[in-house]
Design brief:
Layout (H helix, E strand, L loop, with lengths): L1 H32 L3 E6 L7 H17 L4 E6 L10 H7 L4 E5 L23 H14 L1 H5 L4 E9 L2 E5 L7 H4 L3 E3 L4 H7 L3 E3 L6 H7 L4 E5 L2 H4 L8 E4 L6 E8 H6 L2 H35 L3 E3 L2 H11 L1 H11 L5 H19 L1
Parallel strand pairs: 1-2, 1-3, 6-7, 6-8, 9-11
Antiparallel strand pairs: 3-10, 4-10, 5-8, 5-9
């Protein structure tokens, strides 16, 4: 009896020891299955910017909630991870997992999408223009090919480039002659066509440049008067010409995207399109707020109809130049431009 008890005790101890050995392994497997996927999201606007509070964060929270907490997005606003001009490269190289990119900072990388920078394409809201962006993207494989190095989460349009002046009122073309203007990428062509001298810099750098006088004016979306506090260094804005729209991309590193579980990819694909129009509606709202702010300061200059036509005449050759430059590279630029103009006309008529 004692021998049997001793044997049973020995077997029991052996079994217990085996459980103690296997338990950590089982726990490790369980933890591995529930490991949180951490994603770095880089952008160059301030943390209080409407794109962050009303767009990026709601998207991240939706993805985190629907994934059961398996995804965590950490934001790096205000160029804390990568400079605005480097955000596309930061996605490709993996410095950032996700980044919001202004295509004004990537001249030549998106040659057909750059159509939106051409002035006087039309006069519609950023939200409506985002529909045109998406329709062109779906219609032309050559446009989709421009985005092949990243996973596209969403694309949208910002409000058109507005003309801000630090001190000098700009009422006529002659007022722009040789004026030093902040104008990035394709907007530089607009500045030159109007007789000004373009200087490239990111929006966060414009405040100090205008304050110091190293630039006299700037082509930027009017919302920057509020979100980047440019109203503090801007005395006038000039309205009456259409300076071209700003296309934006929110993309993810392809290697990171391909490593995600299929269900999380599906969640992101479902949540991302919603944010495109939240972003563009935010631009429209802030643009109107900025105009009202400058009106309250007596700083809005409206071009006369005659003067506006002079500006338009100076800018219209940019349409043909845009086509010629890209057709020379075997891109279907004329087809894209003609389809874009058809869509602009369609949406403009629908809004009347």
């Amino acid at each position: 009896m004692r021998r049997r008890n001793g044997l049973e005790r020995a077997v029991g101890l052996t079994f217990l020891a085996l459980i103690l050995v296997l338990l950590p392994l089982a726990s490790s497997d369980t933890l591995g299955a529930e490991k949180v996927i951490e994603l770095k999201f880089s952008h160059f606007v301030p943390p209080q910017h409407f794109l962050q509070t009303d767009g990026f964060m709601p998207w991240a929270k939706a993805v985190e909630a629907r994934s059961g907490g398996r995804v965590k997005v950490t934001f790096y606003p205000g160029e804390t991870l990568s400079k605005g001009k480097d955000n596309f490269d930061s996605i490709v190289t993996g410095v950032a997992d996700i980044a919001w990119v202004s295509l004004a900072y990537t001249p030549g990388l998106f040659p057909l999408t750059e159509l939106f920078f051409v002035p006087h394409m039309g006069n519609i809201s950023a939200e409506t223009c985002t529909h045109i962006y998406h329709e062109l993207y779906e219609k032309f494989p050559q446009i989709r090919a421009e985005y092949s190095r990243v996973k596209v989460l969403w694309t949208h349009i910002g409000s058109p480039a507005g003309l801000l002046s630090a001190k000098k009122p700009i009422r006529r073309l002659e007022d722009l002659e040789k004026m030093v203007i902040r104008a990035v990428g394709p907007n530089g062509e607009t500045a030159k066509a109007l007789g000004a001298t373009p200087v490239s810099m990111t929006v966060p750098d414009v405040y100090m440049a205008m304050e110091r006088g190293s630039v006299e004016a700037a082509l930027v979306p009017l919302e920057a008067l509020i979100t980047f506090k440019l109203n503090e260094v801007t005395k006038y804005i000039t309205t009456g010409f259409q300076g071209g729209y700003g296309p934006y991309l929110t993309g993810m590193n392809l290697k990171v995207w391909n490593s995600l579980p299929p269900d999380i990819q599906r969640i992101m694909d479902e949540e991302s399109p919603k944010i495109a129009f939240l972003n563009s509606r935010g631009w429209d709202k802030k643009e109107q707020e900025a105009i009202e702010l400058m009106k309250s300061k007596g700083g809005v200059i409206n071009l006369s109809a005659e003067e506006a036509e002079k500006w338009r005449a100076k800018l219209m050759p940019l349409w043909d130049k845009w086509v010629a430059d890209r057709e020379a590279k075997k891109l279907p630029a004329k087809q894209v431009r003609d389809e874009a103009l058809r869509l602009f006309k369609k949406y403009e008529q629908a809004s009347k």
